[in-house]
């Protein structure tokens, strides 16, 4: 009796490897060989199975993961574009740290283009289908990020460099405690005698930016210092930062804590346009300890992220997840360290 060639109804659920095998008239192992070891099959059998896979719209990675006898030793990492006018030294350093940690564990990082938003899921799917990566490291995590849910639904191991920034936490992650960093920056400035300490951050809704703003606010309130009218928001580029910090300087801020080194550099430009000197007239603190921070004049006090530790933790968490798929999620929060340089040498007048 001839086999049915009708396409399964969408309501019947996802197409399985067994369904493909029945349609093609072969065993499930033959389908697995066609996907993972095509050289084991005769050309006509391979062609028939591949044609059936395409006709049925079968996505092989779910079954391929279960049937593989050994790891691919590949970890996928999506490179996201850097906004125009900014640099990404922090992510470059993280990628180096991640690659080194993976190499020490016997793995390789497989890079692919991952545009922001749902479009980036195509790259993840392609790596699962074609390269059988063992898992993914995600960076640039944000509110309503579709990647974690998409991977978790398919049982694919992943770890995030960064929190989910939403009420529902999914998966393992390692992150830097930005609030602790900006809190420490305020404490440093208060020790020097500052009381009018402004904050230059990113627009609201950025999980990382909001976290860094919270640390500044928390420290200010702990010391009984006002926060109303003492903060400003800016995109992460020099021109926007230069314009945004103006009202803080007009209000008499003697120090500014910035959410990034780029924003801090924008503050440098704004001060010089006013004939003021960073570090001598207004103290400035950045965040990220970018390569240029030590080269600026004056050199920039900033918060250094422990990227080597983050890279190691991401690899450790991912390998642990591969070995224990049903274990409770693990989250690691690492503290940045304050690197004091010349931009915070100012000791303000007693009334400041």
TrEMBL record:
Arranged from A to Z, the UniProt key words for this protein are: DNA-binding, Transcription, Transcription regulation
Q: PROSITE patterns given for it? A: HTH_LACI_2
Gene Ontology MF terms in the entry = DNA binding
**Keyword Transferase set for record:** no
Q: Which residues form the HTH lacI-type domain?
A: 15-69
In Swiss-Prot or TrEMBL terms, this protein is called LacI family DNA-binding transcriptional regulator
């Amino acid at each position: 009796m001839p086999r049915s060639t009708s396409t399964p109804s969408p309501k019947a659920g996802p197409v399985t490897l067994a369904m493909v095998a029945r349609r093609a008239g072969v065993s499930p192992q033959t389908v697995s060989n066609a996907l993972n070891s095509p050289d084991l099959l005769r050309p006509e059998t391979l062609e028939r199975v591949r044609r059936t896979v395409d006709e049925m719209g079968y996505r092989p990675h779910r079954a391929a993961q279960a049937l593989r006898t050994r790891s691919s030793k590949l970890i996928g990492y999506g490179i996201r574009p850097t906004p125009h006018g900014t640099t990404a030294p922090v992510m470059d350093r993280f990628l180096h740290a991640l690659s080194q940690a993976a190499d020490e564990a016997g793995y390789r990082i497989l890079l692919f283009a991952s545009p922001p938003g749902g479009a980036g899921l195509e790259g993840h799917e392609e790596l699962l289908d074609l390269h059988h990566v063992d898992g993914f490291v995600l960076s640039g995590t944000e509110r309503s990020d579709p990647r974690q849910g998409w991977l978790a639904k398919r049982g694919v191991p992943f770890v995030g460099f960064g929190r989910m920034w939403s009420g529902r936490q999914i998966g393992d992650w390692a992150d830097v405690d930005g609030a602790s960093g900006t809190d420490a920056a305020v404490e440093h400035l208060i020790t020097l005698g500052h009381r009018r300490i402004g904050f230059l951050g990113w627009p609201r809704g950025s999980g990382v930016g909001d976290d860094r703003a919270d640390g500044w606010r928390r420290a200010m309130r702990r010391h009984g210092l006002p926060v109303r009218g003492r903060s400003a928001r800016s995109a992460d580029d020099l021109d926007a930062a230069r314009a945004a910090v103006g009202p803080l300087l007009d209000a008499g801020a003697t120090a500014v804590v910035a959410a990034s080194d780029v924003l801090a550099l924008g503050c440098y430009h704004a001060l010089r346009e006013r004939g003021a000197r960073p570090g001598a007239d207004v103290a400035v603190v950045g965040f990220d300890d970018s390569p240029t921070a030590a080269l600026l004049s004056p050199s920039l006090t900033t918060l250094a992220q422990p990227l080597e530790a983050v890279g190691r933790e991401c690899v450790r968490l991912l390998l642990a997840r591969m070995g224990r798929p049903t274990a409770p999620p693990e989250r690691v929060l690492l503290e940045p360290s304050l690197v004091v340089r010349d931009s915070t040498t100012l000791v303000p007048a007693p009334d400041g």
